[in-house]
Amino acid sequence: MHEMTIATSLLEEVLALVRQHKARRVREIEVELGVMRLVVPESLETAFAVLSEGTVAEGARLKLTETPLRAVCNQCQKEYSARVDDFRCPACGQADVRITGGNDIIIKAVALDVAESGSCG
Ligand SMILES: [Zn+2]
Hints:
The protein has one domain (3-114): hypothetical protein PF0899 fold, CATH 3.30.2320.80. It contains 2 helices and 6 strands. The strands form 2 sheets. Strands 2-1-6 form a 3-stranded mixed beta sheet, with helices on one face. It is α+β, with helices and mostly antiparallel strands. The chain is elongated, with a radius of gyration of 18 Å. It starts with a helix and ends in a 7-residue tail after the last strand. Helix 2 (41-52) links the parallel strand 1 and strand 2 (61-67). It binds zinc ion (ZN). Zinc ion (ZN) binds next to loops.
């Protein structure tokens, strides 16, 4: 279950932002999931919920969007959206391609509740 590993690094990134902004609470995390990573959204949500327990990110909503696979053909330079099970260039039929999208897990946005100024001494 590699969702656990992904959830761990997501949580670390979010908690770093929390410290940076001195936030009290994490409300929502928007994450782009590259299709190549084969993440099961439900598993990621569960893993994140378990890991964030007891942290300021507990109860945060995960907004997951899937990024389609993008590829550029090394032979004819055509850019196209590829399929996970078939990368071949639709123009020339070569499988000599560079993946340019759909391979990353990116935090797009995080909604934080920031402590009101003056509340801390
Ligand atoms: Zn091509």
